[in-house]
Amino acid sequence: MSLSLLGQYVMNGAMLGMMYALVAVGFTLFFGVLDVIQFSHSDVLAAGAFAGLLAWAALTALGVASPLALLVAVLLAAVVATAVLGVLVGRYIVLPLKGAPQLNVLLATLMAGTVLRESIRLFYPGGSQPQMFPALLPTRGWDFGAFHLRIDNVILLAAGALMIAGTHLLITRTRLGLAIRAVAQDEETARTMGIDFRRVVLITFALGSALAAFAGVMDGLYYNEVFFGMGLLLGVIGFAAAVLGGLGNLYGAIVGGFLFAALQTIGAVALPFASAYKDVFAFGVVILLMAIRPTGLIGERASERV
Amino acid sequence: MKAVAAAALTVAAATAFTWFLLRAESQGAIALLIALAVVAGVALTRVNLPADAPESLTQGLAIAGVAVLAMLLREDDFSLLLITRILIVIVACLGLTVQFGYAGVVNFAGASFLGVGGYTAAVLSRATALPHLLILFCGGAAAALAGTVLLLPVLRTKGHYAALVTVAFALLFRTFLEVNDTLGGPQGLKPRELAIGPLHFNDPVQFGPFEGSFYLRYVALALVLLALAFAFVQRLERSFIGIALDAVRLDEIAAATFGLDIARWKIAAFTLGNFVIGVAGALSAFMIGFIAPNNYTFAESLIFVSILLLGGIGNPWGLSLATAIVILLPEKLQVIQEYRFLLFGAMVILILLFRPAGLVPRPLRRLAGPKP
Of A184, A282, B12, B228, whose CB count within 10 A is highest? Predict the structure, then answer.
């Protein structure tokens, strides 16, 4: 394989990996503070993408043409929508089920996701069809042989990396991050230290969901299309990435996201038989890795208090 | 005696109600019937029914109820199809109950194991001359065998990590079916017509003056399978195996300190459950007469899990009720057809929030023997 073609694959894989990592970071944040999987995360993402699309449609109807202003508006709308939805799910579904069996929480949030997804399909104008997502970034690029490097992809990748780095700084360097980590480590001790548990949990839900908004807009800009069911596969892959990396671990989520994208790319490129099996290959490897490292690659401590 | 009368009355009422519901045409009548059922359900939870009728009697009555229902509806293809589907899904959910409800082994790939059974039935009936009754059980065996691939990761992982393993399998299986050309790809496969001995299942039923839809045979076969699976699961629960499985689910460490081999019981429950699901899958493939990857999606698996939780996890009667509700409601209430997933999701959330033990919670095990 030529070097330039390899570059193309690496670039595509990196784009996918960044989206997966952004989704996975959300899963892992929620798991950190509440030990639950918030499975409607990916449909919150889809709702965010559609909110962004709505903002774009509204502004273009008003005659705004500047791509930068539109982009900012789209991002803002998506982030606000997902943050609000994330807080609502956390406040009215996840928190009331605190103490219920894990399975119940998992199912309740899955169903919340179904409700969101169906609401988009039924109530967004034309929502049952894939919707065109506007190209708001410059699409020019440079050619290196067979490798076409597009400016918008570079911007998206860099912005994604910035978002993750920002989240990391927020978690490790600020008072809020300290509170989140304290709640994640030990809820009761955190409470006795005067941390408002509910507030921290809800802020975490807003934060994680806002990251999903970014992944959603990124997905829309990359494929030029959004779809009510777009969260379905993205969510399962994000969940797989978070679990594969080790739940509750920020680095694990990032590693898991890029690893899954790498597996898909390898499956598509390097498998001797049809590349159609790339997802079969990727999920097969995930199952295998879970057998080898049952608590994820960067695992939680495996000891258990009796 | 009072208990027996109550059981008979309940079954008769349920049969009559289902008949009315299946025959009702106007949306108003259907809505009225459903409202009636909700009121009756709420009323039932308020009064204490003498629920101590012998289990075998209740089961016999329930089987008779379904048989009567099928006879009353003998020319109504669609209603009979719905009844058969309900019976088959109950069988599959009984298999899941052994895994989820008794041993606490999560399985989010129920539809995939159903698919393994279905595809096995389709391939075997096309490629070999094996008797079809045997093929049904081959479907179960194939599902159990497919499950062994997941044994190691399922045993080593816990909680969400175990959930991921089965979720990954569900997606893997679905994608595999879609891209695999020998299994028909997205177009799927057609199994051969089900024939057991001289009985050809797709010919109309005719005994002298009696005529009926060909679905009657499927209802009968599904009913037999359901009776077998029901008896099997209930015997399992009451036996020492059931107690061991409960112990494993409730507290692995405590169970291990009492000398229970956790891995062995989990393997047993997972494999048995998958076998039952596989048999259900094989029968459903024969009944639909056409299978495709779209029948075996992750969403379908989630519906099975919802049925378990809705009914009250670990209670075979509860899941039977839940299956009937989940399948019948959207089919009959055409008004909500478009909104059925939305309403279904909302309904499950509300039940999880306000009645987390399900509609009919599993009764506590009475180890002290029957009440004096």
Answer: A282
